[in-house]
Amino acid sequence: MKRLYRLLAAWSILFLAAFNVATAARAYDVIPVSDPETLGFSPSRLARLAAWQQTQVDAGAFSGAVAAIARNGKVAYLQAVGFRDRAKTIPLQSDAIFWIASMTKPVTSVAAMMLVEEGKLDLAAPVFRYLPEFKTTAVAVEIRDPATGKTDVAYEPQRHPMTVEDLLRHTAGLIHGVGKAKVDQLYVRHLYDKAGVFHRDRSLADVVSELARLPLAHQPGEVWDYGHSVDVLARVIEVASGQAFDQFLEARLFRPLGMTDTGFYVPEASQSRLVDPPADNWIGPPDSVLADVTRPTRLFSGGGGLASTAADYLRFCQMLLNGGELDGVRILSPATVRRMTTNALPPDIRFAGYAGGAVGPLAGSTWGLGFAVRSDPAWSAVPGSVGSFSWMGASGTWFWVDPAAQLVVVHMIHASGGSGPFKRMVRNLTYGALRVPDQGIPDPVAGASSIDADTLAGYAGTYRFASSSARDRQEYPEFGGLGIDVAIKDGVLKVVSPSRDMPAAKAGVLSGDVITHLDGETTRRMSLSEAIGKMRGPVNTTIRLKIARTGLDAPIELAIVRAVIRRTEGTDLQVAVNNGKLQVEDKGALPVLDFEKGAPIAVVPLSRDEFFVDGGDHTRLAFLHDEAGNVTSLVLNPGPLQITGRRIN
User: Fold this and answer.
1) Which of these, 84, 99, 509, 553, has the minimum number of CB atoms within 10 Å of its CB?
2) Whole-number Å distance between alpha carbons of 261 and 270
3) Which of 387, 357, 369, 403 is nearest to 107 (CA)?
4) Is the domain 478-566 a CATH 2.30.42.10 member?
């Protein structure tokens, strides 16, 4: 009876999808509202996004960009800037089609969870239940000859078989093969070389069968490492559903959601809207195989094969924000969406590999079932409140969903190096465009207009803000540490870079060093969060490091005293006195509220310590003092949505 109910539920979903195809695009209107203020945005500050994009087009960072922003279920902004082609001769339109690369992964993850809800797929089941070829897949262990220092690969069985959930959360041990370790090179030789198998004329089944012949880089369930897990998941979906992956997505997701321009191939009639990739060698394997979406393919890569538009992907994200439903079509239950967008990783997980620094303790985020999820309330690579979720593509595409702000943002570019160099501006310009609810301007207190010159001079200085909006809170945490960025690469704890004039750099730590021990404890099995936790501690306390350095036979042992570490990334406001009036100008990379570069604004006093902008969005300012009366901070829009800048000079 339960199986019959599931079948009926599935038929009902298909019926609703077919019934709503004609109306879906009309119900969730991707045409922006005429007045974004009704959705809480300042039109003038929202316009800064296009202005910044144009500077990047002019600088050659990318040829064009499309941004889509929705709030409270309505589109506030959908605009294209720049050009569709590398030669910059064809203006870009907002319906441009981009290869979205790894933004395919969340789509594949949703498809898998649809089958989980229908009882056709078991998250806890071993992958070999659906793909028997993975039953005997070994795990590679890199071993080093202590006499020669040479490395080789040994093999051991899986201690626990990889599960379907491991595929969704990137803990299966499958990798991309972009590192220098021996196992990475096995992937490169077998999958991507000219004699390899990762090609568009090979089916998903062919490629996944070859993946099963390669060793896993980690024991399943023990390490988060970005890789081919979601390609394998797509093949699992084919087996569990009895449909080719492209057909499943088209019938069960794209048509029901009205995603008319999303697929593994851009038809010839639509290729006039397809955006050119950059001319240089901007991507590596396997992306170089998947980026050509101008011709049909047999390889329906669940990890990176789709092309889409900003409007289509906005519909997909809005469905998730709505708890799995859009335009009367239910794709997932609210409970399933919550499960996908909350932490799915065990507390002792280790982080390895790469992913643009977007996941792990250094990024202030974790991983759900298909998404990076903000977990740190003070600092995060994922924008928005705790619980916001996102992902990106190697091509430069990026999205995030902020449930607390009821916000969806999709940013489409094709850029060398992906979205990394541009994320900070996009997130800050978006949140910085949200208005603080109008509280009215209070009447000035008696004598406010005649503040003495010494008092005004005391406010002059530079104030640094970590963020342009309290809705995307970024703080300046202070802690005792070494001033060192580290990562787990090739299975070891490596120094990415020591910060200048910080304890590690002063002690002689260099980029590329391998930290083998912390206070006598081996780092070999430590997670990244454990290693960072050990390196941090009370200021003026000592930690002992043992380091292996290329070219040296013996390890280096250092005793380093922890110092105060402060994050310094942010934007600055310059406060000055001019003709007896206080004026404020943005001096950093980010505009903040009413303030911009090259446009100092005189502010009007409300009291001895409070001022406001007489125009724009009437930003209010309050200066804070320490016990000695020295000005220490500047608060903008005091209240629940205030942001605070600390004085730096």
Assistant:
1) 553
2) 8
3) 369
4) yes
Neighbours of 519 (CB within 10 A): 13
pLDDT at 615 over 50: yes
* DSSP state letters, 497-518: EEPTTSHHHHHT--TT-EEEEE
pLDDT by residue (tens digit) across 3-18? 433 443 444 444 334 4
The closest of 241, 239, 232 to 213, measured between CA atoms, is 232
> Dihedral of the CA atoms 283, 284, 285, 290 (nearest 10)?
20
The C-alpha atoms of residue 164 and residue 402 are separated, in whole angstroms, by 27
pLDDT in tens, 165-213: 999 999 999 988 766 677 777 777 777 765 567 788 889 999 999 999 9
User: Tens digit of pLDDT for each residue in 509-529?
Assistant: 998 899 999 999 998 877 777
Q: Does 610 have pLDDT greater than 80?
A: yes
Q: Please tell me the CATH superfamily of domain 2-107+244-282+291-432, with its number.
A: DD-peptidase/beta-lactamase superfamily (3.40.710.10)
Query: Which of 266, 326, 287, 304 lies closest to 70 in space, CA to CA?
Result: 326
ω into 132 cis (within 30 of 0)? no
Residue 358 pLDDT > 60, yes or no? yes
360 strand-pairing partners: 365
Q: 448-475+569-647 maps to which CATH number?
A: 2.40.128.50
Domain boundaries, the chain: 2-107+244-282+291-432, 124-237, 448-475+569-647, 478-566
Of the candidates 282, 286, 265, 287, the residue with the CA atom closest to the CA atom of residue 274:
265
Q: Which of 165, 162, 175 is nearest to 353 (CA)?
A: 175
CA geometry: angle 260, 264, 266, nearest 5 deg: 60
Rg (CA), the chain: 27
Q: What is the pLDDT of residue 11?
A: 40
